[in-house]
Specification:
This protein is mainly alpha-helical. Helix content is 80%, strand content 0%.
């Protein structure tokens, strides 16, 4: 995957995520979780960007096991960081309901799908 293609698609995904986060503001029960949506969007955008940069380097590596190890590490890192983020938000902000999980996991799915697509394309490069 070329850098220019990635950044164009990355901008589109971030635009979709931005519209999702702004849409949260118009749903009364979710509007109180707007700040979490913004931070979630920034976190996942940075994670996908780092995944692309690291994936590009490891795909070009002589040792093809580097790419596989990176994928496994990214899966566990994202999973762990997401659990940590949800628990920390729950303990720090003490929300009255669990509706904050809706925008969090909606963004998680959007960015995970894009990350999977990008890393799959990088894995097929020679």
């Amino acid at each position: 995957m070329e850098n220019q293609t990635f950044y164009k698609q990355f901008a589109i995904v971030n635009g979709i995520a931005g519209m999702m986060v702004l849409g949260i503001y118009f749903i009364p029960k979710l509007s109180q979780h707007l700040v979490l949506g913004i931070f979630t969007m920034i976190f996942f955008a940075l994670f996908v960007l780092a995944s692309f940069i690291l994936g590009k380097k490891s795909a070009a590596s002589e040792n093809k096991n580097d790419f596989t190890r990176l994928i496994i590490s990214l899966i566990f890192a994202k999973f762990g960081l997401c659990i940590l983020a949800v628990v920390a938000f729950d303990k720090i902000m003490v929300p009255t309901d669990n509706l904050y999980l809706i925008p969090f996991f909606a963004l998680y799915l959007l960015y995970s799908f894009f990350e999977f697509k990008v890393l799959s394309l990088l894995g097929y490069q020679k």
